[in-house]
Amino acid sequence: MTKDKPKIRVLHLIGSMGLGGAGKLVKYDVENADPEIFEVGVACLESLGEYGHELLTKGYLVKRFDFSRSWKMTCKNLKALLNLFKFLKYHKVDIVSSHLFIPGILARIYGKILNIHGILHTTHNIMYPRIEPFVDNFLQRFTNKVIVDSNAVKSKLIESGIHSENIEVIYNGIDDREFSQTLQMETEKEALNISSDNFILGNISGLQYYKGHDFLLDIFAQVEAKHKNVHLVLVGDGELKDQLIEQVTDLKLSDKVHFLGKRSDIQSLIAAMDIMVHPARWEGFGIILAEAMYCGVPVVCSDRGGIPEVVQDQVSGFVHPFGDKDAFVGSISALINDNKLRQKMANAGTLRARELFSMKQMMANYSRVYKALVE
User: Fold this and answer.
1) Which of 3, 90, 125, 139 has the fewest CB atoms in 10 Å of its CB?
2) Please, are residues 306 and 149 in contact by the beta-carbon 8 Å criterion?
3) Homologous superfamily of domain range 176-356
């Protein structure tokens, strides 16, 4: 008899598994990795977050280390770092996959010390302080592969000094199980206390500078001046919330702009939207745009970062230069006024999302990378 081949042990290291792109990607990998080949777990430096708790209740390996970003709590952090080192050593990890800045530093240093076969780092965002690219460049000597979610991010990393052969582009995938319900737009609008005969523009993203909400509100003010039955729904939270609420007040749009905070019922929210508007200053990929397209919602967005790799201009939506207010207002108005155009773009977006951004394709790519690292 031949001995069963041991499973490949993969551990994701991340700050928190809260609602957001990085946490969602890790959740997808844990849940969808082939259990006959891989054992995948998660180490959270700071908190489990919503996705972490969800995985824990499903029986997956998820561990929190109570690390604090406040470096004043030195003893607490030293204990957390020591416990993380012991955890990696105890579980005999084959591959450590880090996400975001501090986890990326720790994973690569610990990975080198423990002689871990595969050391991966996923770059989710390049809108960081200036020191971070220099640190990443230094740590690439301890990194087998850097994973990015678009060719635009790959180009930026090459410009910053990361070697091209060390970068792997893997498009994010959509878990169709999360979008399996049959929902009615009218019902979902009314669940938001917005009459079903009103038109909803939506945005789902953290309230951060690079997401472009300030520009979005200026766009909406002009759209609302032309179309009085339009509302704007903002889903997400962040440090700019108070500033954006003040901007809404100044624009006298408090009855038309709805701040919903963090939500997990993404399919219901997308189902209530007639158009998704995403004028970001930068976006590595924009999984929420692919999800909107999958659900048949046309998208009006900026041309920054990897967005043009997701949304095909004039086909599944409109893609405009960031800051071109007239172009955004014109495209949104055209979609509001033309039901056939909306439906045409909705259909094209659904087809594109299913062809290019499937969970099956994403997991096949990660499986290929994982296997290559331990061969």
Assistant:
1) 3
2) yes
3) Glycogen Phosphorylase B; (3.40.50.2000)
